[in-house]
Amino acid sequence: QVQLVESGGGTVQAGGSLRLSCAASGRTASRYAMGWFRQAPGKEREFVAVISWRGGTTYYADSVKGRFTLSRDNAKNTVYLQMNSLKPEDTAVYYCAADQKYSDVLLPSWARDVYGMDYWGKGTLVTVSS
After folding, report:
1. What are φ and ψ of residue 70, in 5° steps?
2. Fewest C-beta in 10 Å: which of 15, 52, 57, 107?
3. How far apart are CA 33 and CA 65, in angstroms?
4. What is the mean pLDDT of the chain?
């Protein structure tokens, strides 16, 4: 069993930055690929980014590539999503997820398996004002 707790959400002006954190607890938490999804009001949940359990492989949605950076510290069982150049369309509840189904080369499968993750956090709200 893995528990995920997100933090770092808030309100920021367009062009600003935020850093989200997701702390994982559980005996094998560090062995899970971890990532983020987001859900804007009235829209489907969508993939944002994923990082392999070793931290050597990352994959991003095209909409955030070049603006968001995902990293992890396995000593702290925590992943960090640094979000720069934020846009109003980035406004959403951001959910942390953990999963073991996909090897490093298959991490892009996260984008097509939105509701198939092993574990989810409760979400943190990010609001970007124009």
Report:
1. -105, 135
2. 15
3. 19
4. 95
3-state secondary structure of 81: strand
At 68, the amino acid letter reads: F
Amino acid, res. 113? D
What burial class does residue 20 get, using C-beta atoms within 10 Å of its C-beta: 0-12 exposed, 13-18 middle, 19+ buried?
buried
Strands 18-25 and 10-13: unpaired
Tens-digit pLDDT profile for residues 90-116: 999 999 999 999 999 999 999 999 999
Q: Rounded distance, CA 41 to CA 1, Å?
A: 30
One digit per residue, the tens of pLDDT, for the chain of length 130 reads 899 999 999 999 999 999 999 999 987 878 899 999 999 999 999 999 999 999 899 999 999 999 999 999 999 999 999 999 999 999 999 999 999 999 999 999 999 999 999 999 999 999 999 9
